[in-house]
Each structure stands twice: as C-alpha cells, then as structure tokens.
Automatic annotation (TrEMBL):
This is Stress Response. Pfam families: Usp. Belongs to the universal stress protein A family. It comes from the Bacteria.
Length: 272
C-alpha cells in the first residue's frame, strides 16, 4: 500500500512533481516534497565568490526554489493532495545524510531524471537513493509531461533479489494496470528461465493481477534491448531491480549508469 510519497526535486525539474501528485491522488496518498539546493562544487561555486555576491547568488537560488515549491503546493491543493514541502541546502555531503533519513520513511520516492547533456542538482542523488534509502525509487523522464497512468506495465525479470523486491514494491501499481508483461532479456539462453517467468505470472495471478510472459535473447546489451522493447510496446511504467545475474548492475550502477538512466523514456520504478 502506498500512502506516503516523497518527491525529491529541485528548481530545474518540472516532470516529477506533477507526476507524483497525480499518482498520489490515484492511490490516495499524502506527499512530501524535498527540494535540494546544493551549494559549492561545480554546480554552484558560491564559496569562491566575494561575500556580497555569494550571498546574493545564494538568496536568488533559494528564491527560485521557493517559487517552485509554492507552485507545486498550489497544484497539490488543487488536486486535493495533502503535501508538505521542505528545502535541504548545503554542500553535497551535508545534504546526503538528511536526504536518506527522510527517504527511508517513504513508501515510494519520485525523482526526475534530466535529459542527456543537461545536469541538474537532484541527478547527483539518484544513485544515493537507489543504494542507500532502502525504498523503491520511481524515476520520471524530464520530458514525460503526463500524469501517472498504468495502461501497460512491463516488469523486467532476471530472477534476482532486487527484481523480486521491485516486483513486490510495485504490486499496488500493478493492481491498477490494464496490461502487465513480465519480460526477461538475456544475452544467451539460460536453462530454466521460462519456468521462472511462468512462476512470476502465477504469483501475480494470486494477487489478482493478470500478466503474460516474454523472454528475449538480445543481440546487443540487456539495457539496449530493454529500452527498445519498452519504447515499442508503448509502456506507461517499467519495473526493475538494480542488481541481478544479468548486466543490470553493470548497466545501471557502473560507468554507463548515468547514460542509460537518462535514456529511459518512461517512468521507471527501481529497487535495490
């Protein structure tokens, strides 16, 4: 059951907040919005500026965040979704610990992923949330621009503990789906995979969720094939774990993690 959503946002993103509010309204949840305002480093080298300029830049940045928070609060009231907002500012190290503390008490965390070539503050914390929050993360592409809906949902299944965790975390959303597909992508055939997929379909059936199963042998990488299948099927939500027997750990948490996450074109629920 999803009753407590946490939106992790910044003043740059525009997709996660509206998506999360529509989701909260759909499932009857309250929402909290945590705005991140990092200071220092490459994103905002305020410490290197003269005091007066640094203060002005910091105040201007916080004003932008306040405006974004006010806009989202208004949208929440309009949607009749209870919501509280909070801002975390400071260095990246200062933000990380309180961010994880708050995230660990959410049923679901919603965060936006920027387009390729466009960094934004919340991007830097997605992997921290995936690996450290212990809660499912729903990553919304920057250009999604649509409310939450669950006409077609794909569950990426590789038999791993993380895939099982993602499946369990997604049950409240899968129960609302019109069509659910369990999808296994491999780079080579492995015995017993089809039987495992059939067991997932049976398990979902016991929760009153009708699903079908498909296994694919990929000619490229698991990630490339998965993204292509999702795009072709017109999926509204992808569900997957971050670790597994396949290359999902390499793809999502290795050197190519930022690239692939940015290329996701549909909201993606991930669990670790």
């Amino acid at each position: 059951m999803i009753k407590d959503l946490l939106i992790v946002a910044d003043a740059v993103g525009e997709a996660a907040g509206p998506y999360a509010l529509s989701l909260a309204r759909e499932v009857g949840a309250a929402a909290g919005c945590l705005y991140l305002q990092p200071e220092g480093g490459d994103e905002a080298p305020l410490a290197e500026l003269p005091y007066g300029f640094a203060l002005s830049a910091r105040e201007a940045a916080l004003a932008v965040v306040r405006d974004a928070a006010d806009d989202l609060s208004y949208a929440a009231r309009t949607a009749d979704v209870p919501m509280e907002t909070e801002t975390l500012s400071g260095s990246a190290g200062d933000i990380r610990s309180p961010l994880l503390d708050r995230a660990r008490l959410a049923d679901l965390i919603v965060v936006e992923r920027a387009d390729p070539g466009r960094d934004k503050p919340a991007d830097a914390y997605i992997e921290d949330l995936l690996l450290g929050a212990g809660r499912p993360i729903l990553v919304v592409p920057a250009r999604w621009g649509r409310p939450a809906r669950f006409g077609a949902v794909t569950v990426a299944w590789d038999g791993s503990a993380a895939a099982a965790r993602a499946l369990a975390d997604a049950l409240p959303l899968l129960s609302r789906a019109e069509r659910v597909r369990v999808l296994t992508v491999q780079t080579e055939a492995v015995a017993g995979v089809s039987e495992g997929g059939a067991r997932v379909v049976k398990h979902l059936g016991r929760h009153g969720i009708a699903a079908d199963y498909r296994a694919i042998i990929s000619g490229t990488t698991v990630g490339e094939t998965l993204l292509a299948e999702v795009a072709q099927a017109g999926v509204d939500l992808l569900v997957m774990g971050t670790y597994g027997h396949s290359r999902l750990r390499e793809v999502f948490l290795g050197g190519a993690s930022r690239d692939l996450l940015r290329r996701i074109t549909v909201p993606t629920l991930m669990a670790h």
